[in-house]
Amino acid sequence: MTRVAILVNQQPAMFELGCALELFALPRQEYSHWYRTEVVTFHPSPLTGLGSISLQVVQTDNLQAYDMLVVPAWSVAPSELPDMLKEELQALAHRGGRMISFCSGAFLLADCGVLDQRPACTHWRYQAQFRERFPDIELLDQVLYSFDGRIGCSAGSAAGLDLGLEVIRQDYGQQVANQVARRLVISPHRSGGQSQFVETPMPELHSHFSATLDWASACLNQPIDVDDMARQAKMSRRNFDRRFRLATNMSPKEWLNRQRVERARALLELSDWRSLEWVADQCGFASALNLRLNFQKYMTVSPSEYREQFAERAR
């Protein structure tokens, strides 16, 4: 069972805290070995949040009891952190603990040296301040979140849900992450590489364009391509490509391949007796080789390695 500490400061950010609680603290009896989570602070409690809300949380002076730390938000103003807080975050990182931050929480991880030699992201409104204070940290300015399996940052408040779902996906698999997303009534997966914002909103639900995305998602096991999607949307290929990129910040081909990889993830988790050729056929990839190439590109591991990792978690 993973022991999780949600770390708050003297003025907790209520929305980000709520996201962290929903992801990791809400009891889920349907899953064995779910996270065991506490909200902690290094400051005297109670704390005061927005709207004069008073919070009584666990006051601590160490993080030794925890395997994972979630920082929902933190002050972006330069300030002297308590040595004890810095030392505890560094100790958790040194012993291989996981740390993720939402929105401005990246400032705390950076202040404590946790993000050294790692990519990071934060909300777009704080990017200039982050670069000024931490010029040696690689800041990714056009992503929803960054996560290497141990250390992660989300760009904004709601993107913390996407990062949290990725953590759950890596711990419990695609099916459980999708179920958690369904309970949250949000998209099962927005990849970290998506833009923080796009130039135009997604089309209305009943337009030919959005209906085409639904159609393509339902036909991933068939050899459809971008030309087929454009015809389904009743658009020229050029217009379809342009509108698709404006709406999603990616090409139709990339979107189609990502959807197929997501389908492959679920099949690899639920059908460990099936061949990769069968998985590739069910996802619309022409061959097991094509599946391997795309899976490696978007997941950074091979399908076989991913299946083995999930099998180990399942055991």
UniProtKB/TrEMBL annotation:
Short name of one Pfam family: HTH_18
UniProt key word Cell membrane: no
Chain ranges of the HTH araC/xylS-type domain: 210-309
Keywords: DNA-binding, Transcription, Transcription regulation
A single GO molecular function term of this UniProt record: sequence-specific DNA binding
SUPFAM superfamilies with a match to the protein in the record: Class I glutamine amidotransferase-like, Homeodomain-like
InterPro entries tied to this protein: Class_I_gatase-like, DJ-1/PfpI, Homeodomain-like_sf, HTH_AraC, INH-QAR
Record has Transcription as a keyword: yes
PANTHER family xrefs: ARAC-FAMILY TRANSCRIPTIONAL REGULATOR, HTH-TYPE TRANSCRIPTIONAL REGULATOR RV1931C
Protein name: Transcriptional regulator containing an amidase domain and an AraC-type DNA-binding HTH domain
Species name: Gynuella sunshinyii YC6258
Taxonomic path: Bacteria, Pseudomonadati, Pseudomonadota, Gammaproteobacteria, Oceanospirillales
